[in-house]
């Protein structure tokens, strides 16, 4: 299973930067720089920005395929270059494109607060998860993978965190199916576990992260298994937003009682001192390294200009 911090996920990026440092890449770098600068000319608009970025990726794919630096390159090598391009562009544009609207910030806060309440009383049986599917070790691993999603700037790396989480759940279901000669029922068993994992994880800025991946991950990559997992996490988010007594197989009065108790407990905990939790150290260090490399590349190209 590929991790966003693993070396396997990074060679395409550093190979792309290495080629961009070469004098022969000056024309490509100018195109990229011009595109990045153009974003400062207008106010942020997530959907419009997404369309612009996707169009630029398509345009640059043609330019890279025709470029001497990628002469006789295989489709995989071209794809690696495009992965490097996406990471470079979206890391540079991150502050301009991620969670920029007030609405997104409000939605993120509301979801996080809602999950904070649900965490205090929702159990697997409330989501009709059969006991045979309970596996605390696997669930904890899935939780930790999902919690990493806010630690990265590139859409692909955020998506890898989502994929890792979902693959842990999928592997759990497959193992249980094989060891118990049990037929799986697809999303009917996968989605409830993912909802429970999402509640346990309460990943920061869940709405903004999902929106960012949808808008800025190359469209040709949001297919098949990737699309299935992403769609399921979006469904989990919507379930949490709309959650009520009936969706948790619970009496209305019981649900309200639990929610009120959770709100009171939250108010008490907020009044007491607590330590804030930052992103995983390895993820943060990896992102700082990438930011330094990007700044270095910009400086080198300025000297060549």
From TrEMBL:
Domain of life of the organism encoding this protein: Eukaryota
SMART domains: VPS9
Domain VPS9, chain residue ranges per copy: 105-249
GO biological process: vesicle-mediated transport
Comp. bias intervals (Polar residues): 268-285
One Pfam family named in its UniProt record: DUF5601
Disordered, as annotated region: 268-287
A GO molecular-function descriptor: guanyl-nucleotide exchange factor activity
Protein name: VPS9 domain-containing protein
UniProt source species: Sorghum bicolor
